[in-house]
Amino acid sequence: MELDEVLRRRRSVRSFSPQDVEPEKVEALLWAAERAPSAGGLNARHFVVVRDRETKRRLREAALDQSFVEEAPVVIVCCCDLKRIRPYGRRGVELYTIQDVAASAENILLKAVDLGLGGVWVGAFREEEVKRILSLPPHLRPTAMICVGYPAQP
Fold first, then answer.
1. Taking Cα atoms as reference points, which of 141, 133, 72 lies closest to residue 100?
2. 60: in domain
3. Per-residue pLDDT in tens (0 to 9) along the chain, 154 residues
4. I want to staple 141 with a disulfide (CB 3.0 to 4.6 A). Which of 49, 71, 80, 129 is the partner?
């Protein structure tokens, strides 16, 4: 699909079909995420793919009970890697790594459209709770969750 068409079709999808997302499509989403710009080429970001129903239920609760977090076949939790961004000091931690994750999240959403999928960016969640649910180490900060699947309504 041409870029202009992807941009035209992109919208927030909060209602998903129960159809699973093929592993190769999830890999393509992660590939697109890694193609995003990164401060100093440090790639100070990390992605956690969640498919497990119980984990998605717990993430839904952490995301202020937004039901589509649990209903989406795939949730990609996008994290800032505070260890990798250290060379840029405080500004790197407070800004650059968040910009890196934001660029990656947008790439995921655009690639989803290209693959016939839909998605929604979730920014409203209790960060420490998400860290506990996913057993994230201290240097990984969850910054966005991208819910992905086949749209219930094309």
1. 141
2. yes
3. 899 999 899 999 999 999 999 999 999 999 999 999 999 999 999 999 999 999 999 999 999 999 999 999 999 999 999 999 999 999 999 999 999 999 999 999 999 999 999 999 999 999 999 999 999 999 999 999 999 999 998 7
4. 80
The reply to whether 135 falls in a domain is yes
Total structural domains within the chain: 1
Tokens 């609760």 locate to: 61
Range of the domain at 21: 3-149
Prediction pTM value: 0.96
CATH code for position 29? 3.40.109.10
| Whether the Cβ atoms of residue 76 and residue 49 lie closer than 8 Å to each other | yes
The string over 25-39, giving b where at least 16 C-beta atoms fall within 10 Å of a residue's C-beta and e elsewhere, is bbebbbebbeebebb
